[in-house]
Design a protein that fits this description.
Shape: elongated
CATH topology: Dna Topoisomerase Vi A Subunit, Chain: A, domain 2
Number of strands: 2
Strand content: 5-15%
Helix content: 40-55%
Radius of gyration: 15 Å
CATH class: Alpha Beta
Number of helices: 5
Number of domains: 1
Order of helices and strands: HHEHEHH
Length: 100
Amino acid sequence: MEALKRLGVSKNVTSMGKGRSIFTFCEDLAKRHKKVVILTDWDRKGGKLARALKEAFGANGVKVVEDIRTKLVILSKKEVKDIESLPTFIENLKATTRRD
């Protein structure tokens, strides 16, 4: 969550945490939100978790906005493998565009 805060995303950010089932986590969020963005790591484990979350949210009537994670993966696939690396990646992009 710290990485998202560094990017200026701080409202309605929730971490799944340990000890809760995916379904319970999604069920709890469904009580407060009708739409979510899933940001898991880009690796196989993160992809598997994203699919499981999407299914559980869908079962609870919550719409999953998929395009944000998909675009982030496409734009940063070679340089970024996890959410924690996003701020550094974005800072490097900004620095590169300033030099050009």
